[in-house]
Amino acid sequence: MNTLFMHCRPGFEGEVCSEIAEHAARLNVAGYAKAKPQSACAEFICNDAEGAERLMRELRFSQLIFPRQWARGSFVELPETDRISVLLEALVEYPVCGSLWLEVMDSNDGKELSTFCRKFEGPLRKALLNAGRLVEDAAKPRLLLTFVSGRRVFVGLAAADNSAMWPMGIPRLKFPREAPSRSTLKLEEAWHHFIPRDQWPQRLSDDMTGVDLGAAPGGWTYQLVKRGMLVTAIDNGPMAESLMDTGLVQHLMADGFTYKPKQTVDWMVCDIVEKPARSAALLETWLGEGLCREAVVNLKLPMKQRYAEVRRLLERIEEGFKARKVKVSIGCKQLYHDREEVTCHLRRLDMKPR
Ligand SMILES: C[S@@+](CC[C@H](N)C(=O)[O-])C[C@H]1O[C@@H](n2cnc3c(N)ncnc32)[C@H](O)[C@@H]1O
Known about the structure:
Layout: E1 3-7, H1 13-26, E2 31-34, E3 41-46, H2 51-58, E4 69-77, H3 83-90, E5 99-104, H4 108-130, E6 142-149, E7 152-158, H5 184-194, H6 200-203, E8 209-213, H7 219-226, E9 230-234, H8 241-244, E10 249-252, E11 265-270, H9 276-288, E12 292-300, H10 306-324, E13 328-333, E14 341-348
Parallel strand pairs: 5-6, 8-9, 8-11, 9-10, 11-12
Antiparallel strand pairs: 1-3, 1-4, 2-3, 4-7, 6-7, 12-14, 13-14
The structure holds S-adenosylmethionine.
The site of S-adenosylmethionine has 22 residues, from helix 7.
């Protein structure tokens, strides 16, 4: 069980390797990271048997940027028939688990395997329950079986409260028909990821105000309006009429990089395609000057050294807040709906509640 297995967006395997290797070095966990390009997964092989467990204990999954899911365990080769007996045998080495997810990679191979997984899950679950390897208990580890082929599976464990919220880290969000653009799902996913569900009523409430920079046609504004907020939408482009008809949106044709609200707003969101350093500076200004209490902003990724560049920008933002003596929590994740970008969430921790 010395391997930490991680899922990611295809093409970002190198970023996952850099990120986990950096954390492992900091935590003195000896080992090495490896990944095949476009495989949508990466592994960190630890030298010591308890290395992977230590990584999972010391790190919060939600704070990792590029991994979409993780599990510690090892690979098991499966026969063509009676895979269940072989899995039951392998699981003798594992603790009794509290839930079971069957996962595949987010790749073409993975898509083909998902039909197999759907058929296999029922009989496997039954066999695990009968053998006492699975009980319904959220406090027990989650058993994550990642099929890389019908003959090879990574048998992994992860704490349910320190791993992805959805199988493979892929949220099941329904596109709202009334929303003016598919981007709407990005902001909805960001909220799921960055804001605990039980805090939604206080932090996304209908007495709040928001500014959406680069708002047209209005997918992100739609999310704010859906929560009942009064929104100032900044964009030279046109906003969807359906949103303007709600009476909750003021549309200003202005530059999102120079606009400032007259009063502190609860939310600033920004989906402008710009150089990441410019978006990072925008975040520093808005949070640093107290123009908003919370923000969600996309950072477009550079072509190379994507992990290193994101880290550098986050450190620069952090230093900016330190110099201004303001307390801000900073989160950053490549969400499922992100492509060549990551999503940042920032929150002022030292401002009086409204
Ligand atoms: C990716 S789109 C935003 C999509 C939007 N979030 C949605 O969900 O419908 C980017 C928008 O940023 C706007 N934009 C680009 N540069 C801008 C700037 N400097 N100030 C304001 N808006 C800008 C563009 O006009 C475009 O509408």
